[in-house]
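hey so u asked for the seq, here:
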Amino acid sequence: MTVLECRGLTKELPSGALRLTVLVAVDLAIAAGEFVAILGPSGSGKTTLLGLLAGLDRPSAGEVWLAGQRIDGLSEDALARLRRGRVGFVFQSFQLLGNLTALENVCVPLELTGVSDARSRAERLLGEVGLAERLHHYPAQLSGGEQQRVALARAFASEPSVLFADEPTGNLDAETGARVLALISDLRKRRGTTLVLVTHDPEVAARADRRVHLLAGRIERIEGRG
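ran it, structure tokens below
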């Protein structure tokens, strides 16, 4: 079953008196539970495509469908509600709130959506990512790998159907990055979560069911099963 799809997706940006075309007529369908890696050189449109698929940005043309609903024309409020209920995010820069503990960082998005057992769910997830002893530590007291694990717990807390990850191991050394990637893979497999991941690392991409290679804003080729 297709959970995420784009049709004719195009993105243009102003560049002085001209328009810069970042993506050109991209068509892509992603099945529920699939792991898709998006690769390409710098400037190929990887992060732009991820942002459009996640509803963080709007296309200049084309359509984006998530769980059978067209999202590219939704209002900001409707998009925010959709993201809270169906989508999780993991970024290269962790994006934790520095004045909140690990536990509080995971609790906040749950509390905002009215989850009654936010604290117990957050504690359980932090235990799953190996941080049961670090619940009350602040981001500055955690290593980069630990911060990314907090970010993972936060991303999975709302039980998203799709997880978007933008270079999630980019700020980590090779060994720590490998552990974080293994953790992402384990969490998503156990939950049946669809994963769309931007990476420049072929070893990371090799774990994916399919690899979508972008070049100059177009899909150059797709490798793998699916």
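The mean pLDDT is 90. The chain is about 35% helix and 30% strand.
lmk if thats what u needed
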